[in-house]
Amino acid sequence: MSVPHPVATDPSPNFHSWRDRIERMNPATSPCPGLHGETWQRVHAAMLVFLERFGAEAVDLGWSELDLFGVHPKVGIIRADHCGALVVGGRAAQWIDPTRINFGNLTYYRDTPGQPRGIPIWAYGG
Fold first, then answer.
1. Mean pLDDT, consecutive 10-residue segments, the chain of 126 residues?
2. 120 three-class SS
3. Which of 2, 49, 104, 112 has a Cα at 20 to 30 A from 68?
4. Three state DSSP letters for 31-96
5. Is 6 left (phi over 0), alpha (psi -120 to 50) or beta?
């Protein structure tokens, strides 16, 4: 049985602090395994657009930084079951509700029973 990776999450979610962290990430430098080149650039841009359009609403609806920006602590997005809604795909969100974010033909559900938790993408250290 593996020991969960300790992670300090933001105790009071604030989409402004999330945006600051994402803006500090270099879109030309891969943050973790599985996100490289144009894919990472699309994901980075889509995260910023999401925060502009839905950031305050996401906080009000109870979405956390791990729900949105989580990645596996050792293998990044290669383990998609640990990933938050915004780190895979790089698509623009169409709408958000308390348990789902829709990306057109893809919907992310945050209330999947037994879903493992990752770490925020900006905390990835390999």
1. 46 83 95 94 97 96 95 94 92 96 94 88 86
2. strand
3. 2
4. CCCCCCHHHHHHHHHHHHHHHHHHHHHHHHCCCCHHHHHEEECCCECCCHHHCCCCCCCCCCCCEE
5. beta
Distance of CA 6 to the CA centre of its chain: 17
d(CA 93, CA 79): 21
- Domain spans of the chain? 15-123
Question: CA 39 to CA 112: how far, in whole Å?
Answer: 26
Q: Look at residues 23, 8, 96, 87 and name the one whose alpha carbon lies nearest to residue 55.
A: 96
- SS3 of residue 17 by DSSP: helix
